[in-house]
Design brief:
Largest sheet: none
Low-confidence stretches: none
Structural class: mainly alpha
Helix content: 55-70%
Radius of gyration: 19 Å
Number of helices: 2
Number of strands: 0
Shape: elongated
Length: 78
């Protein structure tokens, strides 16, 4: 990469929607388990926190992905 040239990344809104749905899925799973076992609210809180950690990791990974934008010149490696 040439010095002084900005790194361009394109993050799809679909990707962020999928990441957000992971948090919702963890929370809903916690609610269902709590409702079935009667342990309210411990499993919900635990799975929500686990989902939050998962979402933070996924956002970090999404931000590190380098995808070229349309019309950007290709890096020839020279």
């Amino acid at each position: 990469m040439t010095p002084g040239r900005p790194i361009t990344t394109v993050l799809s809104p679909k990707r962020f929607a999928m990441i957000g749905s992971e948090l919702v899925a963890f929370t809903l799973l916690g609610v269902v388990i709590d409702w079935l076992t009667g342990w309210l609210p411990w499993v919900t809180v635990t799975l929500t926190l686990l989902g939050l950690v998962t979402v933070m990791i996924q956002i970090g990974r999404a931000a590190m992905v380098k995808t070229p934008t349309r019309g950007a010149p290709k890096d020839t490696g020279g």
